[in-house]
Design a protein that fits this description.
single chain; 141 residues; alpha+beta; 5 helices
């Protein structure tokens, strides 16, 4: 009986570990998780994104400031209506920048997330958002 329980625990552990590792294989995976949470709870989404990097996760003041900034923006901009990927840029294979357009009732907001992979796991390096991004627009003919 003990052997059966040990085998079951080992199988469950492998499944859980494999699933957790797979959940963050790419920056896209992390961002899908972020936006899934963002739709319901912005604070939880920010905690999730910061949890990918132990160096940032411990910065409670920075996390709180970003949460407050998002909350203040949400009050000014109205409902969140989704997002679009506006661009992604890589510097080598370990540094990536993703630019999203957050669609609010009043106006769009540019949301920039930079990811870094120092070893096998992608981590949040930096994030910011602002509404003054028309300078980045290009003419399409």
């Amino acid at each position: 009986m003990k052997r059966t329980i040990i085998i079951i625990v080992a199988i469950v552990s492998m499944f859980v570990t494999g699933t957790a590792a797979k959940a963050q294989n790419t920056p896209e995976d992390i961002m899908v998780g972020f936006f899934t949470l963002f739709n319901n709870d912005v604070n939880q989404a920010i905690d999730y994104l910061f949890s990918t990097n132990e160096w940032l996760e411990s910065n409670k003041e920075g996390t709180t400031a970003i949460k407050e900034k998002f909350e203040a923006s949400r009050k000014l901009l109205g409902n969140f209506n989704g997002y679009e990927l506006a661009g992604k840029y890589y510097l080598g294979e370990s540094y990536a920048k993703y630019i999203y357009i957050l669609k609010y009732d009043r106006q769009p907001v540019e949301f920039v997330v930079t990811m870094y992979r120092p070893n096998k796991v992608w981590k949040l390096q930096n994030m910011n958002f602002h509404s003054d991004f028309e300078k980045d627009m290009v003419k399409v003919e």
